[in-house]
Each structure stands twice: as C-alpha cells, then as structure tokens.
Amino acid sequence: MRRALPVAITLVTAVTLIVTAAACNSSNPSAPDNPGGGDPGATITIMANANNTFSPANVTINAGDTVTFRNNGGNHNVAADNGSFRCANGCDGQGGNGNPSTASWSFTITFGEAGVVTYNCEVHVGLGMRGTITVQ
Ligand SMILES: [Cu+2]
User: Fold this and answer.
1) Number of CB atoms found within 10 A of residue 48's CB
2) Which helix (H) or strand (E) holds 102?
3) pTM of the model as a whole
4) What pLDDT, on the 0 to 100 scale, is given for residue 108?
5) Which residues, given as ranges, of the chain have pLDDT below 50?
6) Are residues 63 and 114 in contact, defined by beta-carbon separation less than 8 angstroms?
7) Largest CB tally within 10 Å, which of 72, 84, 100, 114?
8) Which helix (H) or strand (E) holds 86?
9) Residue 104 to residue 109: CA distance in whole angstroms
10) What pLDDT is attached to residue 41?
11) How far is the centre of ligand 1, averaged over its atoms, from the C-alpha of 57 (Å)?
12) 85 CA → ligand 1 middle, Å
C-alpha cells in the first residue's frame, strides 16, 4: 500500500498535464488572428472602385468562406490569374458573362481549399488593379 501512493500522485499529475494541454489546443482554432474570416462560412465583400482599385485588395479567409465582389463604379471585371474564374455579370462557363462591364454587378465565389489566388481586372491590371485572396 505504501508504494501505491507515489504512483497515484504521478498519474494525477499526468492526467492534469494532458487536460491542460488539450484545453490549450482546443482554444487555438478560435484565436483572433484571422482578420479576414473568423466564423466558418463567413462572407466578405471586395469592391471594384471608380479609382481602379479593389478594396480590400488583399484578404485572408478560411477554407469554406465566401467572397462577394461588387462593382462600385467603373468598367471592371475580376479574373483569377490561375484561370479558375472570370466574372463580372456572372462568371464565364457558369451561365454568366465575365467581360468587363460598367453595370453594378456582383457575384459570389466560395473558396473551398487552402491556397493563394491572385486576381485582376483585365481593363486596369496595367494600373495595378489586382489583389490576392489567401485561403487558409
Ligand atoms: Cu477595372
């Protein structure tokens, strides 16, 4: 019996450490270090502006989040450098028309996989009208 006591204390210590470690790990996914997202399935909006910029141009989101692009003035479209989408009044290949347009268009894309997608306005890319979506 006298030898059993130290073993029991050691076990309690080990369990306490494991519980503490688990608690720390479970809090990490909700840490407020993700300005672009937060809740899974969140939506953020990127405006194409009359001064030939996207705002915000560079965003960081979580996989599964949605980005809505809106034309806030000017002749613009949004084309992914990797060819994954080209949109304005809807998207090419999805029943829409990705040609640059002055209409007050908007369209929405859900980014399901982690990666980096750079995009531009084909009319104003030479003026630096481009941005980056980082999906984490
Ligand atoms: Cu443009």
Assistant:
1) 27
2) none
3) 0.71
4) 98
5) 1-2, 4-34, 36-37
6) yes
7) 100
8) strand 86-88
9) 17
10) 86
11) 12
12) 16
Strand 58-61 relative to strand 130-135, pairing: parallel
In angstroms, the CA 104 to CA 48 distance is 10
φ/ψ bin of 127: left (φ > 0), alpha (ψ from -120 to 50), beta (otherwise):
alpha
pLDDT of residue 54: 98
Under 8 Å CB-to-CB from 50, ≥6 apart: which residues? Answer: 72, 73, 74
In the numeric block, the tokens 């073993």 are attached to 7
| Count of domains observed in the chain | 1
Residue 21 counted as domain residue: no
Q: What's the pLDDT score for residue 39?
A: 65
The alpha carbon of 53 and the centre of ligand 1 are apart by a number of angstroms equal to 7
- Which residue is associated with the tokens 């006298």? 2
What CATH number is given to the structural domain containing 64?
Answer: 2.60.40.420
**Which position has the token pair 């209409």?**
103
Domain-embedded: residue 100: yes
- How many angstroms is it from 52 CA to the middle of ligand 1? 5
Residue 111 inside a domain? The answer is yes
